[in-house]
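Can't paste images in this forum, so I'm doing it all in text. The chain is below; anyone willing to post the predicted structure tokens underneath?
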Amino acid sequence: MQKIENDVFSAEIDEHGAQLTHLVNKKADFDYIWNGKEWGKHAPVLFPAIGRSNQDKYVLDGKTYEMPQHGFVSDQDFTVSYHTPNALALQLVANDETKALYPFDFKLTVVFTLLSTGLSVSFTVENDSDREMPYSLGSHPAFNVPINGDGKFTDYQVQFTGLKDPIKVYEIVKTPNPYRTGKEEELTGAKDGKLTLNYDVFKPGLRIISNPGIKSVKLSSAQTPHAVEMDVSQFKNLCLWTKEDLDCTFLCMEPFNGLPDVLGEPVDWMEKPGNEILPAHSSKVSQYEMHLS
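Text version of the structure:
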């Protein structure tokens, strides 16, 4: 476990999966990140897949490969590239285990930097292969709701910047695993770019916003001076999720570059909607910031 801090915040990151496990407001002495028993994760990194692949498989060059839900990096040990008082860089390099699932020479570097206003998280994907590399990338942070124990889940709202009504999400079907149907539907309860939280919204499963142009998302309540606002402008989609079978006190706000499969057969990743295609011997950086109060 690695720790970074500044005068305002401290954070702990697990090298296993490059997962943020704690993000503490030092003055008010509370943690923004979920650590409850109902869901045993905190903020997993999703790569090179997002969501469930049909039959937990995908196709590339006519060959079928296994692919776990959300990819495989959450089960990999990253190495420390650098560590300063307020910043940490962790890197994963392709190895025999990853190549059995994903036949590319890649590097994934995740950098956590504490700012006076919150936390910046950046992802650099490098393709060291001699061919194009398809991938998806996402981040899955779970925030405690209520924040600092102020109020209850249903006292909170999510405000979207950059979207116009109606706000739409991808329709989800559970088999019991969640897949997209290929259709879209309106986000129930959303109005004027705002969603008041209630558990019924999440009964169908994850809510992936399909409207283009989202800039930021803010979790707040009149019951508390504290809030979480995320700049997600470098990501194509945003997912909201909490466990649909339990009334849990957390909300995941997840920036995605990529999408789960539409229910059916394994998909050719060179043609899959939502995938990034990275040219040979090139790299791409995607970053988001959490503005915390």
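The mean pLDDT is 96. The chain has one domain: 2-292.
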